[in-house]
Specification:
Helix 2 crosses helix 3. By secondary structure, the chain is mainly alpha-helical. The radius of gyration is 30 Å and the shape is elongated. Keywords: Activator, DNA-binding, Nucleus, Transcription, Transcription regulation, Wnt signaling pathway. Its main location: nucleus. It is found in: Nucleus. One of its GO terms (molecular function) is DNA binding.
Length: 85
């Protein structure tokens, strides 16, 4: 008991303690099995990639021109130039 005389709600006394039955354990195992089946089905489906946005299409088209104009080979620097343009 707490100093106020009220038991803490997290403390479970033996007479209140509930034991799980075998049917509860069986239902948990079957739900895990169903989740595993769903994950397998998701993996079998082909992944469809998101289409490129406008900036990515622009970068793809203009990257070669920027590399030809500049002597930079660093991807980050090229991205900055394309971003400014």
């Amino acid at each position: 008991l707490h100093t106020t005389g009220i038991p803490h709600p997290a403390i479970v006394t033996p007479n209140v303690k509930q034991e799980s039955s075998h049917s509860d354990i069986g239902s948990l195992n079957s739900s895990k099995h169903q989740d595993a089946k769903k994950e397998e089905e998701k993996k079998k489906q082909p992944h469809i990639k998101k289409p490129l946005n406008a900036f990515m299409l622009y970068m793809k088209e203009m990257r070669a021109k920027v590399v030809a104009e500049c002597t930079l080979k660093e991807s980050a620097a090229i991205n900055q130039i394309l971003g400014r343009r």
